[in-house]
Amino acid sequence: MFELVVRSRRVVTAGGERALAVAVRDGKIAALHAYDDVTADVPDARQVVDLGDVALLPGLVDTHVHVNEPGRTHWEGFATATRAAAAGGVTTIVDMPLNSLPPTVDVAALETKRRAAQGKCHVDVGFWGGAIPGNLADLRPLHDAGVFGVKCFLSPSGVEEFPALDRAGLRDALAEVASFDGLLIAHAEDSALLCDPPGPKYAHFLGSRPQEAERRAVEQVIESAAATGARVHIVHVSAAACLEPLRQARRDGVRITAETCPHYLTLTAEEVAGPAYKCCPPIREAANRDALWEALAEGVLIGVVSDHSPSTPDLKVPDFAAAWGGISSLQLGLPAVWTEARSRGCGLLEIVRWMAEGPAALVGLPHKGVIDVGADADLVAFDADAEFTVDAAALHHRNPVTPYHGRTLTGVVRTTWLRGVPVDFLTPRGRFLVGS
């Protein structure tokens, strides 16, 4: 007996949109039937949901989320973050190692974080480790304990307990990661090309973090990855100047991938209206945004993930030099990207490729981010034509701060299923995921 059959004329699979009935047994997708050919099986299903023309997507995979618990749970926490994820169609997140206290830079800290998350997660959760000065010997134990990789910064992270690696530290970390065929992910900005903003306005802040700083750091990662043979990934690419070095590195056989974020694809420097827009690296000009869309279509950027990095409202002061740098968007990434994507002629197939399949492949989760037999029955009913106006106070994020407040977006998540069970926002059913 199937526990659930979900029918839709717009089921988004790797092969495109199809009219299908998705049958679920034991939390897995057990069968795919033609939309009109399920009458014999319906009596054997405990529940049948017919979405009609509402699209059915695989649950999205967001590999770049700062949950901040423990230690800064007043900024965000596992209960609130995973509710926001589910409300936005995200069924898997991977938590970043910094902004929590302690940061996830050794196995003891990883276990502390898992204890903090236990029983609170409404979606499945994995964890990144951290690579900082002095913890080289912890990288393999973190890998063996199940993190999906280790993150480093090449410029100040914004929190004292997670310092940046210098050039030699990056090379050493990559050599160590290569020894067990792990993954290192890097925040790539060159500290030597950053400066303090000379004033409080956004133009001052933007000028203090030029594209060249990103490009130089990306080139540094490429050089070290080529020398060590390590697998590397560049997080939150904001600068078009990075794209040609990434293209060339891929042609040269360097094991490198890169991602971008909804705010770099949907917002522009010309429209920044307050400190809710501040993030590092910064939101850049409209022409730069166009280049990022082209790189996505080309495959130079393999995924779109939130970099959800929230704070309390008091840290978002009007002075851009002093405000906390982080965008709150975990619940809004899907409609934000879809709104812009459809205006550029993209379809839901591309959305799934960028926001589900690509991130799942990055962290080695082939049973996530796809609608296929044997995959987890993580599903999203997405009304791709419905519109809504963002009300920050109505979001599940702990603090009502987002640059999308007041914007009209297209695409509404109607239901999110985690392993075939609807997320009810009351009963946490998420599981911990571990890397291989």
What is the helix tally?
A: 11
Cα-atom radius of gyration: 21 Å
Q: What is the 3D shape?
A: globular
The percent of residues in helical segments reads 25-40%
The biggest sheet amounts to: 6 strands, parallel
**How would you spell out the order of helices and strands?**
EEEEEEHEHEEHEHEHHEHEHHEHHEEE
* Cα-to-Cα separation, first versus last residue: 32 Å
List segments where confidence is low: pLDDT < 50 over at least 5 consecutive residues: none
Look at the helices and sheets and give the structural class: alpha/beta
Instruction: Give, in spatial order, the strands making up the sheet with the most strands.
Output: 9-10-11-12-13-14
Q: How many strand units?
A: 17
| Proportion of residues in β-strands | 15-25%
Q: Roughly what is the average pLDDT, rounded to an integer?
A: 97
Write up what this structure looks like.
With 436 residues, this protein is an alpha/beta fold. A 6-stranded parallel beta sheet has the order 9-10-11-12-13-14. The chain has helices spanning 78-87, 107-117, 139-144, 167-179, 202-208, 211-228, 243-251, 262-266, 286-298, 333-343, 348-362, and strands spanning 4-13, 16-25, 28-34, 48-50, 55-58, 60-65, 90-95, 124-127, 129-130, 150-153, 183-187, 231-234, 256-260, 303-304, 379-389, 408-418, 421-422. It is globular. Helix content is 27%, strand content 22%. The longest helix has 18 residues, at 211-228. α6 runs parallel beside α7.
